[in-house]
UniProtKB/TrEMBL annotation:
It is found in: Cell membrane. InterPro entries: BphY/WalK/GraS-like (IPR050351), HAMP_dom (IPR003660), HATPase_C_sf (IPR036890), HATPase_dom (IPR003594), His_kinase_dom (IPR005467), HisK_dim/P_dom (IPR003661), HisK_dim/P_sf (IPR036097), HisK_sensor (IPR041328). The chain crosses the membrane at residues 12-32, 176-196. It comes from Bhargavaea beijingensis. Residues 372-591 form the Histidine kinase domain. SUPFAM superfamilies: ATPase domain of HSP90 chaperone/DNA topoisomerase II/histidine kinase (SSF55874), HAMP domain-like (SSF158472), Homodimeric domain of signal transducing histidine kinase (SSF47384), PYP-like sensor domain (PAS domain) (SSF55785). Its EC number is 2.7.13.3. Pfam families: HAMP, HATPase_c, HisK_sensor, HisKA. Keywords: ATP-binding, Cell membrane, Kinase, Membrane, Nucleotide-binding, Phosphoprotein, Transferase, Transmembrane, Transmembrane helix, Two-component regulatory system. This is histidine kinase. It catalyses: ATP + protein L-histidine = ADP + protein N-phospho-L-histidine.
Length: 592
């Protein structure tokens, strides 16, 4: 029931029904009032005509008997009359029944009707008189008393009365017909109201179902448009709206996907903030950055550093873009924060974090490289200039001193050559311009051949050189033999140069489970623990005073690291100060 009243059908039906009911009620009341007055006036006019006619008949007929027959024929079945003289005595009575005497008495004693003897106009009155069938029951009658004249002299009066039951019966029949017509009109109105409402609401229900489908994401829903009225126009407009919404969503989806792909492919971290500082949107680099910040700020409030919060508050408060470079948790970031607007209202901000750590490192490496190259070249150049000036000035007196100076100049020139060559090799390796020529190579013969080149040098330095390549077995590995020889030469040469007389250098190789390992161990002075992480950097020397005298450039380990990593491997250093050092490089390979 509530569903009907809450629907358009129920509301239209109730509105039309109330309107028609109100009109029918007004029409019925007015019609019944009109018919009641009409029948009452008709009865009164009939009585007047009959009274006037009786008066004329009595005046015109000298023979009373003849007038009685005429009057009797004139009166209807439900109409009675009595004629009285001036004294109030009944002269004649017509259509009287068994209660006629009581009716005469009531009529003659009624004060209003008695005025007919003193006035020249009829007197009309409705009154209850005894029923013709039952003396104890009263019925409504319409009574008219009219004077009788003989010339200008009042000769008596005639009382004509009619039972109103017939009139009331007519009124009841009329009322029944009117009410029946109103009921039929009410039923027909209900039917046509429901029919009209259904004709209106049926397409509206279809529009509602289509709107629900549209809200659920089914944008292909079409509403039929059989009608060519306002509802049909509404359906056409709805279908057009659905197509436009689908098109707009597709465009928005494409733009969103494009924006998401752009954000995902960006190497810079992008974070979108709400006005209150909460995070709305991030890309993968930003997710990694936030995770790092959260791990570093476990004991602090918030996920982002306080410096970022301050910049964000400044952007929101002053509506201006902020850009700065800050060190955060050991990294350098170029940070740009711009406001986001919703109309003229700032709804948040977007921050772009560009990691400048590598750039700072490269700048430092470049600066250190220039400083180190300058430092390394300064000493041999100074020595070349000094000794060459001594020779040109003729300061040297003996041939033996001259040969010594020439030897020093030659050694320093060769040292400068090695420095330049090593620098070029390292630059080509780091820039990717050096090509590897990999070929299947037997590991054991290669290791033994390379190590054998240093036997004489080890003997001259009173150092024991031991080679153990049995662990490599018959393994054959795809590698660039010349480059690996450069790595091993550097490691063995470093080990011999940094091992004192009476010491020992051991070269050991193994190939197992797809991994080639070559280790060079010595019993030299070792490397301090704090220097181990830096030994593979260019120009780094754990003991610069000791290394310079041994002809090192500080680039050998950096070159070895790049060559090994170019083969997909890695290199590490294990050392204890005063106990010796072990350099190990590993290269994965596919077993044959």
């Amino acid at each position: 029931m509530n569903r009907i009243w809450n629907s358009i059908v129920g509301k239209l039906w109730a509105t039309i029904l109330l309107l028609v009911s109100f009109v029918l009620f007004i029409v019925s009341v007015l019609l019944l009032e009109f018919l009641g007055n009409f029948y009452g006036n008709q009865a009164e006019n009939t009585l007047r005509q009959q009274a006037v006619t009786i008066s004329k008949i009595v005046d015109q007929h000298e023979d009373p008997t003849a007038s009685i027959y005429v009057i009797d024929d004139l009166l209807g079945e439900d109409t009675s009359a009595i004629i009285v003289d001036v004294s109030g005595k009944v002269v004649d009575a017509f259509h009287e029944e068994k209660n006629g005497s009581k009716i005469r008495e009531i009529l003659l004693n009624d004060k209003e009707l008695s005025r007919v003897f003193g006035e020249d106009s009829p007197v009309v009155k409705e009154m209850n008189l005894p029923s013709a069938a039952d003396a104890d029951r009263l019925e409504a009658h319409s009574v008219l008393a009219a004077p009788l004249h003989e010339g200008d002299r009042l000769n008596g009066a005639v009382f004509v009365y009619q039972n109103m039951e017939a009139v009331h019966e007519n009124i009841r029949q009329t009322n029944y017909i009117v009410l029946l017509s109103a009921f039929i009109a009410f039923v027909l109105t209900t039917f046509f109201a429901f029919f009209l409402s259904s004709r209106i609401t049926s397409p509206l229900r279809k529009l509602k179902e289509a709107a629900n489908s549209l809200a659920e994401g089914r944008y292909d829903t079409e509403v039929p448009t059989p009608q060519h009225d306002e509802i049909g126009d509404l359906a056409v407009a709805f279908n057009k709206m659905g197509r436009q919404v689908k098109h707009n969503l597709e465009v928005i989806g494409q733009e969103k996907e494009q924006l998401q792909n752009i954000l995902t492919s960006m190497t810079d971290a992008v974070i979108s903030f709400n006005r209150d500082g909460s995070i709305l949107l991030t890309n993968p680099p930003a997710d990694r950055l936030l995770k790092k910040w959260r791990d570093a700020r476990k004991d602090k409030e918030g996920d982002i550093p306080d410096e970022i919060t301050g910049m964000l508050n400044h952007v929101v408060m002053y509506s201006e873009e902020v850009e700065d470079e800050l060190p955060l948790d050991g990294q350098y970031f170029d940070i740009t924060i711009s406001p986001l607007y919703s109309g003229s209202y700032i709804r948040g901000a977007v921050a772009v974090f560009r990691d400048m750590t590598e750039q700072h490192r490269l700048d430092k490496v470049r600066t250190d490289f220039l400083a180190n190259v300058s430092h390394e070249l300064r000493t041999p150049i100074s020595m070349l200039i000094g000794y060459s000036e001594a020779l040109s000035d003729g300061i040297v007196e003996t041939e033996e001193d001259r040969e010594e100076m020439m030897k020093i100049i030659r050694d320093e020139a060769m040292r400068m050559g090695r420095l330049v060559n090593d620098t070029l090799d390292l630059t080509r390796l780091e820039s990717g311009y050096m090509r590897l020529y990999k070929e299947p190579t037997a590991v054991r013969p290669m290791v033994e051949r390379i190590a054998s080149k240093f036997i004489q040098k080890a003997r001259d330095a009173d150092i024991t050189l031991k080679v153990d390549a049995a662990g490599a077995g018959e393994a054959i590995v795809d590698l660039d033999e010349d480059r690996i020889e450069q790595v091993m030469t550097n490691l063995i040469d470093n080990a011999i140069r940094h091992t004192p007389s009476g010491g020992r250098v051991e070269v050991k190789s193994s190939a197992d489970d797809g991994l080639l390992e070559v280790a060079v161990a010595d019993t030299g002075s070792g490397i301090a623990e704090e220097d181990l992480t830096y030994v593979f950097e260019r120009f780094y020397k754990a003991d610069k005073a000791r290394t310079r005298g041994k002809g090192g450039t500080g680039l050998g380990l950096a070159i070895a690291k790049n060559i090994v990593e170019s083969h997909g491997g890695w290199i590490r250093a294990d050392s204890r100060l005063g106990k010796g050092t072990t350099m190990t490089f590993s290269i994965p390979f596919e077993e044959r």
